[in-house]
Amino acid sequence: MSETAPLDITGWTCPAPLRDHPRVVMGHGGGGALSAELVRHVFAPAYGGPALADLGDSARLTLGGARLAFSTDSYVVRPLFFPGGSIGDLAVNGTVNDLAMSGATAAYLSCGFILEEGVEVATVARVAEALGAAARAAGVEVATGDTKVVEAGHGDGVYVNTAGIGLIPAGVDLRPQRVVPGDVVIVSGEIGLHGVAIMSVREGLEFGVDVASDCAALGGLVEAMLAVTPDLHVLRDPTRGGLAASLNEIAAASGTGVVLREGAVPVPPAVANACAVLGLDPFYVANEGKLVAFVPREHADAVLDAMHAHPLGRRAAVIGEAVADHPGLVVARTGLGGTRVIDLPLGEQLPRIC
């Protein structure tokens, strides 16, 4: 390459382990490339149907003239209780947030419990109470449910599945295909807290300061953003696979590139320290109470002000923009003036975090 030639990063690649797995591995549930392959090559062809086409956080449906968002998720986190929340809080907030990423106000949830033989009833009651409290706080009603029990040794105490449904307001159209070059990328706050909180409890690690999960329902924050303008382009909550997975999915679906300013991404010191010790990248660590938004540039300042006025958006920050260059690729400008590719993770750095 000559010294005057423009930097072409579209051909950059990173070696990845062989992904031709005849059996399911933990990475298939991590929200990264392996998860995407399983959905693309196994589930989507088997199910078919146009409602699956977007493969977003929730399906957008029309029923009887109403625009609905519909989502389901299963929660297998270990441990069941952790700083900042529990599997019960996750089960509500995770599904409510998936609906909110379509702009919908969650209305009703279903809840299925899968219990392992031998788990203490008091533990089940504690999870149920946390789930009910989280539902009330989010303004959503648990309308139906189911319970199954599996033999001892065939579960992990308590698994929970929730499905949710909500109404999408008129004029709201949130999907990655609407992203265009020039859109401003905003994250609603500090990243990586949930994954580090789970890891600290699970592995008995200490990082010099207590770390609590950011688990929270984002419906109110989304409503505040939409009150500024319904013309937001896309929202995602960066859970499994972290911020990196969400940005890569949006870039691929929109056919745009994404350029981040690495120093602008809010990473709390405890997360940075934990990742430095363990060799992890905060961009890939899971969150449970954050969102990333692609906003038309003309609305970005007003949307950011509205986020700052909401308790869940006080640390919101502009971290980059969508560009026409290197479509489908996410890159970060480092503090040293370099550029690094933020690729789609293969699996999850920390398994069983939600």
Descriptive key words:
354 residues, seven-stranded mixed β-sheet, 23% strand, disordered N terminus, Phosphoribosyl-aminoimidazole Synthetase, Chain A, domain 2, five-stranded mixed β-sheet, alpha+beta, 60s Ribosomal Protein L30, Chain: A
Describe this structure in words.
With about 350 residues, the chain is α+β, with helices and mostly antiparallel strands. The strands form three sheets. Strands 9-11-8-12-10-13-14 form a seven-stranded mixed sheet. A hairpin with a 5-residue loop joins β13 (about 330-335) and β14. The longest helix has 18 residues, at about 120-140. The protein has two domains: about 60-165, 60s Ribosomal Protein L30, Chain: A (2-Layer Sandwich), CATH 3.30.1330.10; about 175-340, Alpha-Beta Complex (Phosphoribosyl-aminoimidazole Synthetase, Chain A, domain 2), CATH 3.90.650. α2 (about 85-100) packs parallel to α3 (about 120-140) and α5 packs across α8 (about 295-310). Helix content is about 30%, strand content about 25%. The protein contains eight helices and 14 strands.
Secondary structure tally, helices: 8
CATH structural architecture of the largest domain: Alpha-Beta Complex
Number of beta strands:
14
Describe the strand arrangement of the main beta sheet, using strand numbers. Answer: 9-11-8-12-10-13-14
User: Number of domains in the coordinates?
Assistant: 2
Large-scale geometry = globular
Proportion of beta-strand residues: 15-25%
Question: Order of helices and strands, N to C?
Answer: HEEEEHEHEEEHHEHEHEHEEE
Q: What structural category arises from helix and sheet content?
A: alpha+beta
Please state the CA-atom Rg, rounded to the nearest Å: 20 Å
- CATH class of the largest domain reads Alpha Beta
CATH superfamily label of the largest domain: PurM-like C-terminal domain
The main β sheet shows up as: 7 strands, mixed
Helix content: 25-40%
Low-confidence stretches: 1-7, 9-18
CATH topology of the largest domain: Phosphoribosyl-aminoimidazole Synthetase, Chain A, domain 2
Family: Belongs to the HypE family.
Protein name: Hydrogenase expression/formation protein HypE
Domain PurM-like C-terminal: 181-326
Domain PurM-like N-terminal: 57-168
